[in-house]
Amino acid sequence: MHTTFRNALGEKLTTGDAVVLFAGKAPKSTADANYTFLPNKNFFYLTGITCENFIILMHKTERAFESHLFIEKPDYDIEKWIGRKMTKETATSISGVESVKYLDEFHDVLNRLIYNNQIQKIYLDLEKLSWDESDSVAHDFSMALQKRYPFIRLKTIHPILSEMRMIKTPEEIAHIREAIQMTDQGLRSILKMLKPDVMEYQIEATFAHAIRMAGADGNSFPTIAASGGDAVILHYVENNKAAKAGDMVLLDLGAQYKQYAADISRTYPVSGRFSERQKTIYNIVLKAQAATIEAMKPGVKFETLNEVCKSTLISELKAIGLIQKDEELTRYYYHGVSHYLGLDVHDLGRRDVILQPGMVLTVEPGLYIAEENIGIRIEDDILITEAGNENLSVMIPKTIDEIEKLMI
């Protein structure tokens, strides 16, 4: 799979182009401890490897698109403390890259290629979501390159890989399916234990245990288990309160399998039964989700999805008298309905496009009524197909009847 991705990338480049990607390194947290390492997903996409510090160098010649993988050198004294280093043979087996060298050879190999005029332009992963975002190892490397080789042109690889990663292969879709199946198991475990006075962190722990027992890498993102009034906070992650009788708990969570993410939201009644008011609001959100999913098919603009969602919510909220004017919707619905899903939970991909087969997107309408302590979000993961779409998470209970029956 990763060799195929590298070959596809090579087709988009011209002779003299090179790409350098870094796996990254976990930053220090405190004392002698580091944060948990998360590999750069673009590096993983092109190698299949999740080790710290590794580098891949790819360059296009007139004859081929060549790859060189640079890995850490084995050191028995260090390995006694932190575990075995990956061997060259294993690196080739996982990545498909035949040319595997040690990290201390990287600069010499790069310098030789530049000196021999085989590289005129280098692509790096220079994506930044904000002006204030910290520099990555790629940004530091870009400054060193400009100082040493001012004649080399630098570009970001982000737009090219975004375009590629928008469309999933059958193998990628299979990994996402597995992650969703594991998420389903985790949610069913929550339904069995949820009751008044259960702590939100116990809900979080129940999910984490269930998905790890099922074989997941772990969580695809920190679990949101927001009960009562905190459910109106989109990214509530404190999970430190007791779920109270009569309230609901909004769950936004997912398993990760082979680096691919699931992203599911469900809202459950803590006492096992929805109140009549909760049912009314819940079914409005469910109706908005159904309308949005129905609209998802090749040729539809990405931006249309949120328009369909908002139109349904506006119509239904007017019908129950919660709003009178269209613009009042923003009091109760204040996020988009969809994003791409894949190696990242909010996966790479442009939004000024039409939907195409192979895209995997979330659909997550919500209503957040702070004055009533009601926050509801329902989220599924949808694959765009030639014929329309497939709900990959269709097996996860979400109707009121399904949920209440499982909580008996």
UniProtKB/TrEMBL annotation:
Q: Which InterPro entries match?
A: Aminopep_P_N, Creatin/AminoP/Spt16_N, Creatinase/aminopeptidase-like, Pept_M24, Peptidase_M24B_aminopep-P_CS, X-Pro_dipept-like
Instruction: List its EC numbers.
Output: 3.4.11.9
> What family, per the record?
Belongs to the peptidase M24B family.
Organism this protein belongs to: Fusibacter ferrireducens
Please list the residue ranges annotated as the Aminopeptidase P N-terminal domain: 1-132
Q: Which domain of life is it from?
A: Bacteria
| GO molecular function annotations of the record | aminopeptidase activity
Keyword entries, A-Z: Aminopeptidase, Hydrolase, Manganese, Metal-binding, Protease
- Keyword Calcium part of the UniProt annotation: no
What name does UniProt use for this protein?
A: Xaa-Pro aminopeptidase
Q: Which residues cross the membrane?
A: none
The protein's annotated catalytic reaction(s) are:
Release of any N-terminal amino acid, including proline, that is linked to proline, even from a dipeptide or tripeptide
Repeat found in the keyword field = no
Family matches, as Pfam families: AMP_N, Peptidase_M24
Cofactor dependence is on: Mn(2+)
